[in-house]
Structure formats: C-alpha cells, structure tokens
Amino acid sequence: MKNYTITVNGTAYDVTVEEGGAGSVASAAAPKAVPKAAPKAAPKAAAPAGAQGSVKIQAPMPGKILAVKANAGQAVKKGEVVLILEAMKMENEIVAPQDGTIAGVNVAVGGQVEAGDVLATMN
C-alpha cells in the first residue's frame, strides 16, 4: 500500500492505493479531507507616511513594474501614463483615472505586484 496526499482546488485528500500484481486491479480508499492551513500572504509594503491620497491606482493584473513615469507631487491629467506594468510579455500603460496630483508611488522598478495591489495614490 502507498499513501498519497492529493490537493484538488485547495482541499487536501489522503488517498491509499494498494499495489497489485499482474492482472489485478488497484483499488483506492475513499478520500478523506485533511484540513490544511491556508498559506499566509506576504505583508505588503506600506506607502511612506503622508503619501496616502484619496484616489488609488491599482494593478489590473499581476506583473512586473518596468517604469515609473510620475513621481510624488507631480500633477497629472486623466489618461496620462503613471506606470508601465509588464504582464504576459506585454507592456501595459497604467494611467491616471482623473486629473490630480500624485500623492505617493508605492512600487519600484523591478517590483512584482498582484492584481488589486495599490501602485500609487492621487489627490
């Protein structure tokens, strides 16, 4: 007999499989759920003190920051490129959602981000 732990859609199952000789059929015991602790997310880097704006510019998808085009204190117009995000071998322009001033940039060139991460804030 061999014991295996198989994970399907985040749920772990212990499975026992009997080894059979030639012509025999291997049987599997009914799987039983094994509780597993959910992986803990890494803490996110906080923006510098006083750099929080009321408008958040979030990552639409996971990727790598290739360039930061706007700095804290810089005035931007709606649609102006703030950052360049590489995802799936494509460069995506992350633009200002409205006219305003960049309050803070929460990422650095080369940094990895997940979908929904706050990249920058605006006032």
User: Rg to the nearest angstrom?
Assistant: 24 Å
| Portion of residues within helices | under 10%
What is the CA-CA span between the terminal residues?
Answer: 64 Å
Q: Are there runs of 5+ residues with pLDDT below 50, and where?
A: 40-50
- Beta-strand level of the residues, as a percent range? 35-45%
Number of strands: 11
Strand arrangement in the largest pleated sheet: 4-11-9-6
Q: Given the C-alpha coordinates, what overall shape results?
A: elongated
**Overall mean pLDDT:** 81
Strand count, sense and barrel status of the largest sheet are: 4 strands, antiparallel
SSE pattern: EEEEEEEEEEE
Tally the helices: what do you get? 0
Return the structural class: mainly beta
Topology:
Layout: E1 2-8, E2 11-17, E3 32-34, E4 55-58, E5 63-68, E6 75-76, E7 81-87, E8 90-95, E9 100-105, E10 112-113, E11 118-122
Antiparallel strand pairs: 1-2, 2-3, 4-11, 5-7, 5-10, 6-9, 7-8, 9-11
Characterization of the model:
This protein has 123 residues and is an all-beta fold. 0% of the residues lie in helices and 45% in strands. The chain has strands spanning 2-8, 11-17, 32-34, 55-58, 63-68, 75-76, 81-87, 90-95, 100-105, 112-113, 118-122. Strands 4-11-9-6 form a four-stranded antiparallel beta sheet, with no helix packed on it. Strands 8-7-5-10 form a four-stranded antiparallel beta sheet, with no helix packed on it. A three-stranded antiparallel beta sheet has the order 1-2-3, with no helix packed on it. A hairpin with a 2-residue loop joins β1 (2-8) and β2. The chain is elongated. Mean pLDDT is 81; it is low at 40-50.
